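User: I'll paste a sequence; please echo it back and then give the predicted structure.

Assistant: Echoing your sequence first, then the prediction.
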Amino acid sequence: MSNSDRSEEFDLEAETDEDFGLDEGLVSSDIAAAISNLLADVPIAQAQEFPDGDGNIDIRATSMGNDIVFADVDGVTFISGDLADPFGSGTGGYSPFLSLRDSNQNPLDSDGAVHAFNVDSTSDPLLNDLIFANSRTNAVALSNLVIEVIDGVEFFEIRLDLNEPDSGTDSQLQFTNMTLYYGDGTISSFADLTTATEVWELDGGPDGDLTLQLNDNFSGSGTDDYQIFIPVSLFDGADFSTGYFFLEIEAGSTELNSEFAMEGGFFEFNVQAAGSVSGIKFLDEINIGVYDEGIEGPPADSFIIYVDANEDGMLNFTDDGDGILEFNGDDIILERYTETELDGSYIITGLAEGTYQIREYLPPDSPYEGPTTGDFETVTVIEDTNTVVDPIGNFLPVPDIDITKEVTSVDGSMDPLDFTVDEAGDVIEYQISVTTGTGNVDLTNVVVTDPLLSGAPLVLVSGDDGDNVLELGETWIYDGSYTATQGDINDNGGGNGLIDNTASATSDQVGPVNASAAV
């Protein structure tokens, strides 16, 4: 993206934002509001902007002592000082991905300035001359960048460790340009970098080039001086399964005796060790909590799978008051999550090393029950590794009730050929059978009625095991009888020559359903 393309995206007007508790300074995007909540209880100062006399803007994000300085440039946020936790290179929590030194041998940059980007290996002499150590510089897979959620906004977090002298202005360093890209794993030179997709650039504002001025916070080598939060949304066009993250930096100063020249042995960008988790959602058709691969498929609906970071057993989101998560702009999810694909699969990348609880979110009005496999799954995330989560099942209740009715005898005869009512007093015996039909759940409060037999109530003769629940596989059998009247004979069974009889069955879950018999 050219500088002219980006010029309209910068807002370099100094402004005061009381919500941030910040002094007048550079605030250039709404993303800053999310980061500000991270700083809500911390005394901080806003980075200041100054014309440098050459038509450019200097953004001074220098911090002395315990001061915390906050600078937001077009959505990418730099935070210095005590807010950065003490993890850094060499601790096991973070590791360098771009470690640079100054060199008099670089023909493009004089002493005190560097220009390079992170790469696995290169034959480019300009890069080889600047890279502090090949073992500390590498391309970074997008899937291995830790993602932090702040007020519902996802950010990549990287760290910066400066190693400038711990005295006065000698501790300062400036970035004259910084550009972020994504691309494939074949990039190994400055020429290759032109094929990558640029997503953000420090330079290019309407007031001229930007320079970001930083300083070593005297925390010692191996402890980071700045946190950098990069909106994940900048990489919306990237394939996170195959893409790589690249950071191009121009730092230091070519001016003689400049207080912002690179005077330390090296500086480096660090990334937290990260991995991913993936798994499968399945429809537990028989509700036993066991995945039968190849037989049981995915649910027809998509599910939200989330990382319960605070282990409170619920998906944290900003609720508009109805207790139901709605993707309509009113509710914002505050934890790492994803939605299952059509085949039930899911993956969550960018998790820091550690142990997590993986849960699903079921809305209060969901027709599904579960999870049948347990409330949550526990996984341990390992650097550069995808950890497979145990399958998560859900049961979809489909209640059904089925009723059949038949004549078993007429006037003592059990022969269907003799089922004829020809005089008042003939007794018709009926049998009614009730089951769960094609359903997959037990039924409670089952009630069977037959208006014609109201004078002789139905009797449950078999099928119930005594718990008054119509269970899967059970058949409840009722007996009942009707004695023909002279009226039945006189009107010829209502005019059609038959005594019609209909029974009904209903339950708490489903019904009513009907079944008839005529004789």
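DSSP finds five helices and 35 strands in the chain. Residues 488 and 495 are 9 Å apart (CA to CA).
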